[in-house]
Amino acid sequence: MRRNLLAAAGHFLSRARFVPQLAHAQSLRNWLCHCSIAVRLFLPIFLFFSLLPAFSQRVISPVPGTFANQQTLILDLPKGAEAFYSYTNTDPLTSGFAYDGPVLIDMSGKISLRVAVINGEESEEYKIDYTVTDGGNPFAVGTAEKLFIDRIVSENILLCSGENVISVPRSLSLRIGDGEKPAMKGGILSVSADNRLSRYIPCIVSSGEQNWRFIIFLAPGEVLPLSKKEVPFEIENWSTFRFTGKNLIWAIDEGYWSASTDDVILDRSKSHIVYWQDVAYKSGNPIQSFVLPPKPSLLQESYNKSVVFNINGDLRYKLSLVSSGAAGEVLLNDGLYTTITFDTFEGDYISQTAVFALYCDGVYQGELTSSYEIDRQPPLPPKFIASEEGEYARRDVSLRVESEDGTSVYLAVYGPLTVSANSYLDNNSEFDYIKPNSSDYVLYKSQPIELRAGTEMTVCYKAFAYSQDKSGNLSALSSYKVIIDEYNYFLDGNAPDFASDGSRLHPFNSFEQALSVINEGKFVHFFVNGDILLSEELSLISSNCSFTGMRDARFVLPPSGYILVRDASLEMQNCVVQKDLDKSHPSDSRLFVFERSAASFEDCEISGSFDSSGTVFSSEASSIVLKNSGLSVQASNYACNHSAVNSRIQIEKSRFASISDTAVNFSLKGGSLDLRNSECEVISHLGRIVEATGVNLRMTGNSFSGDFDSDGKKIKPVWKDEKSLILEDKNNKIEGF
């Protein structure tokens, strides 16, 4: 069965209440296509203003797309047109239904809707392919979201009037109208109780995963009765006067009496008086009159974005709405008003031309038209255009803001804010709390905003912007965040080669990439994950750098490779560095070499395996610091943990092991050694903990252990020459010497 909206609209206009009803078309079969008299009984009396230019302003609903609810067929038909439709991709003129008003298409899956419109000798046909999924209502029972989606599914056309508001849950995204309309958060949709505008408005609500399309019927307020005065003449289009009285004579102003029914053209820029009396003229007969005031004009005022039409003319004039130019208006006799208000709900926009009939003391005079615009639609959010892509930048960022034409942009920028290491690793959560204050916004004047890098520190900037159109509508808020970091990089041995730029999302995956940044001459810090393989040649570090291991960070050197730090500083935290012996490849006897440099190692494990001889650390005129770290070295003939010339060495809570025929932990010439709370061991035929020539020594709280292949050699753990000084020697434990 089908219930069209004609009866419902009539009920609404008489009772000021309206609940649209929808039903599945189950009747009016093919014979309606050939019975023009029967078809005319079902012609719609609604005029629809299309929001779909792609369908020549004919099909308001449905539209192409995928929706989670069944759709209603709503057409915009010119007067006198007939329409037929089918939803099985068959010819609607031979096996379709006659369209007599909005009707629910009770189908799911892929649907091919065909519509044929016949208007006199002209005909048009449209095809709309859309899909209805059967995903059900995903929201929990009793929630506002579930109740609203259930209502959309069951009704599909929702009424909005002065007495009926629509409450869309704010958790849903709402887009009003079709095309590139901005999405908004849900809210209360309401209109003024004085509203006389009537139209169909397509809307889409989204949960982010599913879309539900429905129609809002914007209904006018209560209709007052139209009261007309009976007079023996009529006015057509203001200036044409036609006398229609029977057995009466008439005169205009001071003219002669006449019984003519011919049209008379009046100058309506001034007043006229129409007289009439009985045709049997007698002295003393009563003479009746009617004053025609000058033709008025329409005044249009805006009140809180609604449009109010007023009459600029004689107070006897009243307005009646003929057409708003919008879809969905009901063409029934309207009431008479001193003013007429057009309104719509937030998020909507309409620009049309309205037609009004004017009556003077209930006597029709003519029509006046007036274009109008109601703009409650927010502009699109502004877009941030940055000189550097992504949320991370290695240099200053130039930031611009783009918005729709005719809108003003208001911008608030926060920063530079110092980024701590913890924030950097935790995805900068400490900046999520920043929310803009209304007082912080300033008018953006189209000039780029320069976001500067920090001085030897990482900084963060956050920016917020919104657009305001000429009607005062505000867009949704846009935000932008960037961390400008010239110093922190990411190095991950498991990262792919694609787009490798050292950022968090695209880390470097090779030590060569890291060196290319380090040796540019500025300090850089690397967060390291996984195994990092070094080249088989020299890896030169010539500028200051730091490495922090995150998860199993390990640097692996081939037998022929070593790291040279020259005139620079190196820091390592929580890293493993190892060099393994492979007799099938040539071997170099070094692992780290420091020349006029500074190095510190904390919570690190460093080990080297060599063929004949090998040294883990070799330093000259350098400063070396180890804390909570371990060094181990193994070779067949000679093994040394640290060989130093004129270097300053500070060690605390660390471990050293040298394994070889001849083994030493520290072989020092000049400089100083400060060794505290550490474990030192040699496993060898001949071995010592320290060999010092011209060195200042401080040794406290250490354990010195020797494991030799023969006894009785009486080897001292610490050997020094006469130029060396032991400045501190406390609580050191010796075993095996």
The biggest beta sheet is recorded as:
23 strands, parallel
β content, as a range?
A: over 45%
- The helix content, as a percent range, equals under 10%
**Unreliable segments (pLDDT under 50, ≥5 consecutive)?**
1-56
Number of strands: 60
Cα separation of the termini: 107 Å
C-alpha-based Rg, rounded: 45 Å
**Number of continuous helical runs:** 6
SS content category: mainly beta
From the spread of the alpha carbons, the general shape counts as elongated
Give the integer mean of the pLDDT values: 87
Structure notes:
By secondary structure, this protein is mostly beta strands. It has 6 helices and 60 strands. The strands form 12 sheets. It has a 23-stranded parallel beta sheet that branches. The chain has a 5-stranded mixed beta sheet with strand order 3-9-8-5-6. A hairpin with a 6-residue loop joins β12 (173-176) and β13. The protein starts with a helix and ends with a strand.
Question: How would you sum up this structure in a few lines?
Answer:
With 737 residues, the chain is mainly β. The chain contains six helices and 60 strands.
Give a topology summary.
Layout: H1 5-15, H2 36-41, E1 46-47, E2 59-61, E3 65-67, E4 72-75, E5 82-86, H3 92-95, E6 97-98, E7 103-104, E8 109-119, E9 122-132, H4 144-155, E10 157-160, E11 166-167, E12 173-176, E13 183-185, E14 188-189, E15 199-206, E16 211-218, E17 233-236, E18 240-243, E19 248-252, E20 264-265, E21 272-278, E22 288-292, E23 297-303, E24 306-312, E25 317-323, E26 329-330, E27 339-342, E28 349-360, E29 363-375, E30 383-386, E31 392-393, E32 397-402, E33 408-418, H5 421-425, E34 442-443, E35 449-451, E36 459-468, E37 478-484, E38 488-492, H6 511-518, E39 524-533, E40 538-541, E41 545-557, E42 562-566, E43 569-573, E44 576-579, E45 590-595, E46 598-602, E47 605-609, E48 613-620, E49 623-627, E50 630-634, E51 638-652, E52 655-659, E53 662-676, E54 679-684, E55 686-693, E56 696-700, E57 703-708, E58 718-720, E59 725-730, E60 733-735
Parallel strand pairs: 3-9, 10-16, 31-37, 38-39, 39-41, 40-42, 41-43, 41-44, 42-45, 43-46, 44-47, 45-48, 46-49, 47-50, 48-51, 49-51, 50-52, 51-53, 52-54, 53-55, 53-56, 54-57, 55-58, 56-59, 57-60
Antiparallel strand pairs: 1-26, 2-4, 4-7, 5-6, 5-8, 8-9, 11-14, 12-13, 12-15, 15-16, 17-18, 18-20, 19-21, 21-22, 23-24, 24-27, 25-28, 28-29, 30-32, 32-35, 33-34, 33-36, 36-37
